[in-house]
Design brief:
By secondary structure, the chain is of the alpha/beta class. It is built from 20 helices and 15 strands. The longest helix has about 40 residues.
């Protein structure tokens, strides 16, 4: 429940401190006094967007503080706990600061929060019904949303919307794949030809590297053979062969070791050199033996290289990339095969449609039951609002294919008088009738909600007299179950309030001070004067005051 509101430097309010009470509180005052400023401040406190234009002229910032008592609100308590935003003693303090820069700072129980978090918390605490709801009620979407809220089917409606989107996604994917299947026939043929050609070539990176090595060797075999034979000649077969020279030196030095042992390391090195030379000569002879001129092998390698180069040029890639290209083309063909499984896509689409219709049918059943209840309650309320014999009906008009909102279109229909056929609310209701019907719907739908505080902002526009008195009684009755705040211009509604506040606007022209708006909590006598003003206009007579007192007394006695 709303407990306390503090407003500072907001629009034309310098500073206001208000303590709220349970029951039905009415807010009255002259036109333009600033009654709606209170509603605007509360809306900002629970997450409505605002800007620097809301700051009172000449001030640096506007500040709004609201305190709620969280009795019997386990859902909000869990939400606060989940976001580490708990307060003390079952209280919730929401704070909003708007600076001249346009920057907004938001707090819940002293913790800085986002505007979205402020709004989410506010949805648990406040429900504001404005006079604009009358016109909104003419919209089919608003009618559907109201019925779903009345039935508690918002979650089911969101599930239906998600299921419908899934179904449509499957449908669009299937259509796209069918189109792609037709369009990709030529592409498939091209890919298959490319795959066939690359598979026939069947080149690997390892083969390409080996071919390059072999081609280099075979194309220079004469030079290689000449170098090998020359090396053998120099090392072992000429008169001055290196091996013989080393052997000679080694033998000479070995005979002199007895005379100087310092020659031993040198002899060892020469022995090692002998071994290395012998191994080199052996390997050169072996290399020469297997290094044969093979023109046919060279020709075959050159033909293979030529084929690889030609294919690479055709596909505009390097020879090294040909194996990777084959792999890519194979994957593309596999993807086409997967995408073109239209039968599987049709099965997925059918399953998604079935799931959608299952959920939509469940939603339809909820709406049907709730529609009957809402029809009965609003029709009953109409009998008390100078619409005797009138009838209200929630019609569910089937949609052949359904849509994101279900298998039916929700339409509010009304017969304002007995003997008149039901027709769409938008076509038959006059302004006054629409106001009454809208108010009845708002009061009825508010009863089934869990929000503890309900605010009605001039929802009684377009009514008066006896109907206004009935509306006041409806709101007073609702105030026994919830905390209700109503801004009104009607004395009949004001008289039914458990409490009454008066909004006044004042300015000290002598001091050239700006206009400010204040709220006065009225006692019994002050209420008589205020209601008399609402009844009598500029000149308030004793008779008017007597009438006002009688209205208050009559309302208090009920």
């Amino acid at each position: 429940m709303l407990k306390h509101l503090s407003i500072k430097d907001f629009v034309i309010v310098d500073q206001i401190e208000l303590e709220f009470m349970s029951g039905f509180t009415v807010l009255t005052g002259e036109t333009g006094a600033g009654k709606s400023i209170l509603i605007d401040a509360l809306m900002l406190a629970v997450g409505e967007r605002g800007d620097a234009s809301l700051i009172r002229q000449g001030c640096d910032r506007a500040e709004i503080n609201v305190t709620f008592h969280l009795v019997h609100m386990p859902d909000l308590m869990r939400w606060l706990a989940a976001h580490d935003l708990q307060g003390d003693d079952d209280l919730c303090l929401m704070r909003r600061i708007i600076e001249t820069s346009g920057r907004s700072r938001n707090y819940i129980n002293g913790h800085s929060v986002t505007l979205q978090q402020l709004r989410m918390a506010g949805e648990f605490l406040l429900s504001i019904h404005s006079q604009h709801a009358h016109q909104a009620l003419l919209q089919k979407d608003a009618q559907r949303e109201l019925l779903d809220a009345f039935s508690g089917a918002q979650e089911a409606a969101r599930a239906v919307k998600a299921a419908y989107q899934q179904w449509q996604d499957c449908c669009q994917h299937r259509i796209a794949m069918e189109q792609r299947a037709a369009e990709s026939l030529e592409k498939r043929e091209q890919l298959e030809w490319q795959q066939q050609e690359l598979s026939t070539l069947n080149v690997t990176l390892e083969e390409w590297q080996a071919l390059q090595t072999d081609h280099s060797r075979l194309s220079h075999v004469a030079s290689l053979l000449e170098a090998a034979e020359s090396g053998i000649e120099v090392l072992s077969e000429s008169e001055t062969a290196a091996l013989n020279q080393v052997n000679l030196v080694s033998s000479q030095l070995r005979h002199l070791l007895d005379y100087d042992s310092q020659l031993k390391p040198i002899v060892d090195l020469l022995d090692s050199a002998q071994i290395q030379l012998q191994e080199s000569i052996y390997e050169l002879k072996h290399y020469r033996q297997h290094l044969d001129l093979d023109p046919q092998a060279l020709q075959e390698i050159e033909q293979r290289l030529s084929a690889i180069h030609a294919t690479a040029r055709k596909f505009r890639v390097t020879p090294e990339d040909l194996p990777t290209l084959l792999q890519t083309i194979t994957q593309q063909l596999a993807t086409l095969d997967s995408d073109s499984d239209i039968d599987q896509l049709k099965a997925q689409e059918a399953a998604a449609e079935q799931q959608y219709r299952k959920q939509a049918q469940a939603l339809s059943a909820i709406r049907q039951k709730a529609g009957e209840s809402l029809s009965q309650q609003v029709s009953a309320a109409m009998q008390t609002m100078a619409m005797t014999g009138g009838q209200f009906s929630v019609e569910l008009i089937p949609l052949e294919q359904g849509n994101a909102y279900g298998l039916e279109q929700v339409e509010f229909q009304v017969a304002a008088h007995k003997g008149v056929l039901l027709r769409s609310l938008a076509k038959v209701a006059s302004g006054g009738e629409l106001s009454r019907i809208s108010l009845a719907i708002q009061v009825i739908t508010s009863k089934i909600g869990t929000v503890p505080t309900l605010i009605f902002d001039e929802v009684d526009v377009g009514i008066g007299g006896q109907v206004a008195e009935i509306v006041g009684k409806l709101l007073k009755k609702l105030g026994k179950e919830r905390q209700v705040l109503c801004i009104t211009h009607l004395p009949q509604v004001a008289a039914t309030g458990d409490h009454q506040w008066q909004v006044v606007k004042s300015a000290d022209s002598a001091d050239n001070q700006p206009v400010v708006s204040k709220i006065n909590v009225l006692d019994k006598q002050q209420r008589v004067e205020e209601i008399a003003r609402m009844l009598g206009g500029i000149k308030i007579t004793q008779a008017t005051r007597q009438h006002a007192a009688e209205m208050l007394h009559g309302s208090a006695g009920e």
